[in-house]
Amino acid sequence: MTTSERKTTGEIGGRDHFTDFDLDSKEFSENFDEVVSAVHQGCPVARSEAQGGYWVVSGFDDVRAIGQDWQTWTNTNGYEPTRSGTDDARLYPLEIDPPYQTRWRAKLGEYFSPRAIRSNKDSIRRNVNELIDQFIEDGECDWVDAFAAHLPGRVFFSTMLGVPLDDLPYLQAAADQAVRGPVEDRMEGWNKVGAYLAGYLEQRAKEEPRGDFVDAVLEGVTTDDGEPAPFMHKVFVMVDMLAGGLATTTFLLSGIAHFLATHPEDARRLADDPGLRPGAVEEVIRVYASILSLGRTATKDTEIAGQPIRKGEMVMLSYAAAARDPRHFANPHEIDITRRIPTNIAFGYGPHRCIGSHLARLQALTAMEEMLRRLPDLSMAEGQEPVFSHSTVTRDMDTLPVRFTPGAKETS
Amino acid sequence: MKYVVDSALCAAHGLCADTAPDVFTLDDDGFNAAAGRTVDVPEHLEAAAREGAAACPESAIQIQD
Ligand code: HEM
């Protein structure tokens, strides 16, 4: 794009988001919709000097093209600029490229297929209702703390990992610390999660196989050298599942509640017509896109939308911005429950596209169904707004104070 | 050329088979019949395979040259 066509300045909230973008900045998180609109209009490839410097790519078509071209854009240099690229704490398959990455995906795919995920539906519904029981008599709660932060962990630990029930509180607390705790405590949380998962893998390796996801991880695949994947790589796979699947789904479940609480008309239509619900979930995933951005590193000199990029430079693919590209979506910031979106770019594109998309969708749909049934008049607490925050990678909701007509518990 | 279908992603939209019926077939539930496998593509169908892969809304089909 030439300078003359550009919206000339990206100045919003005291920062120029065209030349001095910072994914982590308050100026961005506090003016999210406005900044996203501005970059789509004036600066599809913005420059950041934060974290040693990176580019931010926002256009739907550019993000898609880069996501599909893993030869030019590698994941092996880490998912964000501050990743050191050392090999002691990695996320797999996120931080590897095909063909090794493809082998892991082929190994794990069947456990995440729509058919496999659907078999968890009853267990997800039971977990949803147990959580709702804990606050339904109160008539109010903080939705994040009471519900959204808990469901993804319960579902993943109990159904996918099959860890002993007694270990759940510890693991949930460690994951919570890693994902939502004070920033300076998060590394400690991840270390606890990693240590637990390594221990769990070791223990399962000694047991009779159960034929589940954990056994598939233990079987492993061959590396590009033709060697069996080392044990550490298997731990990296387990940690990636939690890093990729917990906070993201928590934000989505918070988004579902925020949307229903602030759109009573839509909530009524969804209550009356179950056929509209999957499309509504898809729209919430798009507008409350949990992954703000993830990185790729150029393997050669190249360009994006006319912007030269040098070999070794990092670009952050802004999925949350691409999901609101006005060239693809009319009224991009609005949730339109009748909109039909062909591809939900909130889950990425290309070989790294989210392996857990069907699990996230099913949790969101089941939560929506039970909320419409048991909390039909959900609304924001008087005069309250949600508190949003974000990091380079994720968007988060810290609190969501809601109220509703109290109801009765259903399970004992 | 080969293609791989990621069974975690295939959601039975059916667009691959609509776009390139000579390359992709669906199973009884509408999922890509090759989900989870790597499949060789005959040379005369390479262009069709690329189009079918590009049509997938879930990015489930990867082409390997
Ligand atoms: C709303 C929920 C979710 C969103 C928006 C989301 C988004 C994404 C995105 C955008 C990517 C692409 C990464 C890239 O381009 O580098 C991704 C990858 C991934 N996601 Fe999700 N995700 C969600 C839920 C989940 C769940 C529930 C799980 C697992 C249980 C999961 C596990 C992963 C893993 C392991 C990867 C890496 C895949 C690879 O590199 O091949 N995600 N996710």
From TrEMBL, chain A:
<dbReference type="InterPro" id="IPR002397">
    <property type="entry name" value="Cyt_P450_B"/>
</dbReference>
<keyword id="KW-0349">Heme</keyword>
<dbReference type="Pfam" id="PF00067">
    <property type="entry name" value="p450"/>
</dbReference>
<dbReference type="InterPro" id="IPR036396">
    <property type="entry name" value="Cyt_P450_sf"/>
</dbReference>
<keyword id="KW-0560">Oxidoreductase</keyword>
<dbReference type="InterPro" id="IPR017972">
    <property type="entry name" value="Cyt_P450_CS"/>
</dbReference>
<keyword id="KW-0503">Monooxygenase</keyword>
<dbReference type="InterPro" id="IPR001128">
    <property type="entry name" value="Cyt_P450"/>
</dbReference>
<keyword id="KW-0479">Metal-binding</keyword>
<comment type="similarity">
    <text>Belongs to the cytochrome P450 family.</text>
</comment>
<keyword id="KW-0408">Iron</keyword>
<protein>
    <submittedName>
        <fullName>Cytochrome P450</fullName>
    </submittedName>
</protein>
UniProtKB/TrEMBL annotation, chain B:
<keyword id="KW-0479">Metal-binding</keyword>
<comment type="function">
    <text>Ferredoxins are iron-sulfur proteins that transfer electrons in a wide variety of metabolic reactions.</text>
</comment>
<keyword id="KW-0249">Electron transport</keyword>
<protein>
    <recommendedName>
        <fullName>Ferredoxin</fullName>
    </recommendedName>
</protein>
<keyword id="KW-0408">Iron</keyword>
<keyword id="KW-0003">3Fe-4S</keyword>
<dbReference type="InterPro" id="IPR051269">
    <property type="entry name" value="Fe-S_cluster_ET"/>
</dbReference>
<dbReference type="Pfam" id="PF13459">
    <property type="entry name" value="Fer4_15"/>
</dbReference>
<dbReference type="InterPro" id="IPR001080">
    <property type="entry name" value="3Fe4S_ferredoxin"/>
</dbReference>
<keyword id="KW-0411">Iron-sulfur</keyword>
<keyword id="KW-0813">Transport</keyword>
